[in-house]
Amino acid sequence: MGRFVNPDNSAFQVALNSEIYVDKTGLIKYTNSVLDTTNALICNSRPRRFGKSYAANMLAAYYSKGADSEKMFSDLEISKDANFKKHLNKYDVIHIDIQWFQANCVEPDNVVDFVTNSVLDELRKIYPEELPTEVTRLPDALSRIKDKTGQKFVIIIDEWDVLIRDAAMNNKVQEDYITFLRGMFKGTEPTKYIQLAYLTGILPIKKEKTQSALNNFDEFTMLSASKLAPYIGFTEDEVKKLAEKYHQEFDEVKRWYDGYLLKEYQVYNPRAVISVMLRGEFKSYWSETASYDAIVPLINMNYDGLKTAIIEMLSGAEVKVNTATFKNDTVNIKSKDDVLTYMIHLGYLGYNETRKTAFVPNEEIRQELTMAAESKAWDEMISFQQDSESLLDATLDMDGTAVAAQIEKIHNEYVSVIQYHNENSLSSVLAIAYLSAMQYYFKPIRELPTGRGFADFVFVPKPEYKNDYPALSVELKWNMNARTAMMQIKDRKYTTSILNYTGEILLVGINYDKNSKEHQCLIEKYEKD
Q1: pLDDT, tens digit (0-9, with 9 covering 90-100), for 503-514
Q2: Which of the following CATH numbers is that of domain 10-220: 3.40.50, 3.30.2010, 1.20.950, 3.60.20?
Q3: Exposure class string for 28-42: b at 16+ Cβ within 10 A, else e
Q4: How do residues 252-264 score in pLDDT, each as one tens digit?
């Protein structure tokens, strides 16, 4: 066994030794199903804290000839599969972590040579006759070994994209690395010596420079996780079991850490879930493992509609995003859509593949984004928060005139002229106008099913604020009047679905008159029977 060729299973054993381990060996069933096929080249990208290295270590422990892992996997899901022993510890595995190699190089220009020499040194000890000293390139070495012995390889590269991200401005590093990837994976010869290739990182394959090097890979991303969705993060069923075992309130865990929508799965941040189970503290664990400095330049980019979109998402709404424009290039970001797509890959936003929308997934990320905006004195954010706080205060004071004036101010300043006279824009205005309410209320529920219809917005206070803040049932009308909105709330019994959640309830009817360009508001306290 070696460090990089045919490693032992000690790295995966560390995961198994941990107090909390969630079985993700179902991933191996998928990789077994594609071994030695045209689908055997996999690029699985996901954010930090989502178990990239755990998965890479698991695959290495399972496939590596340098390990004896039958006992290790005997109680895990994969052991029940008919092909479990067929592939267990049967392959020459090359497992490299590009981030480790980069950290141990004086200059990033030397990373590719460091990887090549380290792996070649170990291969020569295993195949001395097949690799004479004149063999200096890794793809050539693998091809020779396969030709003379028939042995194919499982190649696992963790943090494959670290040079694409961290050395984005260094053309030599980029070109050397892309040439290395092209030699390893592109063309007819690699299909002869690769049994399986598994790359994991944060970014999907770059659509320009590395496209020609890796366009034969199947990609699984935060935009489209496909069959690997249940193996990216923790699923809701897994979190429910942990919450029960560790006596944590599941609904609170869900509010703080849920929200990533991959295929039909609600996916949670594993690092955060484990932390809250072991510590019992509901807070943001995001900044303990990564700084939000990376996104501050992004949200401060002067692209039309970007800052309004960030504010809207912080307020609980979803915004449309065209993910096709982003080239997985962190240097040449050219639009609002590029920024939002990059933030999805980083895990700061969730993505609804069906609706093609981006959103803030949970309370943890909402706090991180808010702190990121405030850390750089984002003037638009500070000004908007002040306007939003004034609106919330006026609502709680039941001052309909002040509420109408504040909504009109926000409508004028944050919605474009083109969209102004649009019923959907009024709904969007309300979504962002109550941004300050997010400190005291859960994410607003849009079109909550109620007595005999749908309320436009329902704000339910968080448990700790239940006795101090009323629930809000908000109905919007277009070219009617505020009294009509109020009557609809009452006639359709919009309050019935939230009577058990809080003490007081305020009914808020809002109308926008297109002709006069005026907003009207009527607020009443709901009197319980």
Answers
A1: 788 999 988 887
A2: 3.40.50
A3: bbebbeebeeeebbb
A4: 899 899 889 998 8
